[in-house]
Every structure is written in C-alpha cells, then in structure tokens.
Amino acid sequence: MCPHAYLFFLQFIVIGFCMAIPQLKECLDLLERHGVPQHIVAHSLKVHEVALFLAERMRSNGVKVNVPLVEAAALLHDIDKHMSFANPSVHGVKSVELLEEEGLPKVAQVVKKHMLGTILEKGSAGLESLEEKIVYYADKRVRHDSIVSIDGRFEYLLKRYGSLREESRKTIERAYPKALELEKELLGLAHCDEGLGGMNA
Ligand SMILES: [Fe+2]
Q: Fewest CB within 10 angstroms: 77, 90, 117, 124, which?
C-alpha cells in the first residue's frame, strides 16, 4: 500500500472509531437534544462515575476493557427513560432505535443490555461483554443520583415496581442473586470491595 493510501485508510479508521463512541461532552449534548430531564442526567452522571471507576481499575489491573464505550453507554443508558413514563415497556427499545439513528450502534448494544431482566437471559440476549456487565452493574448501584448497595437498589425496585405487576416482582426477585454474583465477579476484576474505593462513603 502506498503511503497516501495508508494515511487515508488510517484517517478513515480513526474518524470511524471517534464517530462510533462519543465523548462526555457529546453525550451530554445528546441528552439535552433529546430532552432528557435534569434528574435523569444527574442519575446518568453518577452511573458514569461508578462505571468509569470500575473500568479504569480493571484496565490498570491488565483487564482488556473498552473504557470509552463503557463511559458513553453509562451516560446514555437512560436516554429514553422520560419517553417511557407512560409506557414502561418502551424503555430500552426506544434508546436502541434512537442511538442507532445517531450512528452509535456499539453504544446501543451496551445500552440495550442494562435492562434489569437481561441478567436472567442466556446467550446473546444476556450479559456477554465486560462493558455490558459494567454498565448493568453500575446502574444497579445508583438510586436516583446516590450510590447505594445492591440491596438498597433492589429494595427500591421492589417498592417502586414490585407492587405494580406480579411479573415485575418476580423479575426483581430472580435478578437479585444474579446481581450479587455479578458484583463478586466485577469487584474481583477491579480488585476492590463494595465501597468502590471510598465512593460509597
Ligand atoms: Fe439507570
């Protein structure tokens, strides 16, 4: 390959990579452009803080993890939450549509997996990549914009959604022990405990 062609190819790859994974400012702009309310932005920023902490710790321990992807998915995971207040079944589905339309299929894939029931699924419908696991877990450590334990988060979920439908209550109860298993796996990779290095003080 001649040097010009090589440079063009390299530029193409770099631009493609950057477009696929937006940075913090671009994510915040996207949330604003799609009318995400301030309290959901505050929640997303806290989920981002937890997810980034874990991903960085893992990376420094030699674990292969796509940190920018974790960051973007954590920031954008609830981009459709305000659109699903009237119809909770669209939560997650609308986010994927929207993020794919924005040219962010890689982020959409991770966001899709943050839904509570994903941890109960097998194969490609379940939690597969480390990035998916980190974003799922970080979301289960944040209630509103505060870091809480898995127990605290699931107690809240039961109180808020468990009384609405029998099916929701069962999903929450079945997901709880799986979330604890996931916690053990991720904290092991990050070499830290549930205190998240003092974040959860
Ligand atoms: Fe969330």
A: 124
- Ion ligand 1 neighbours (CB, 5 A) are 78, 139
Measured in angstroms, how far is the CA atom of residue 78 from the centroid of ligand 1?
A: 5
Domain range annotation of the chain: 23-196
Cα–Cα dist 81/78, whole Å: 5
Range of weakest confidence among 60-69, 137-146, 164-173: 164-173
How would you label 167-176 residue by residue, b for 16+ Cβ within 10 Å and e otherwise? Answer: ebeebbeebb
The per-residue pLDDT for range 144-155, each reduced to its tens digit, is 999 999 999 999
Ligand 1 centre distance from Cα of residue 106 (Å): 18
Taking the centre of ligand 1 as the mean of its atom positions, its distance from the CA of residue 48, in whole angstroms, is 10
| Helix, strand, coil share of the chain (percent; to 5) | 70, 0, 25
Give residue 47 CA to ligand 1 midpoint distance, Å.
7
CA 189–ligand 1 middle distance (angstroms): 23
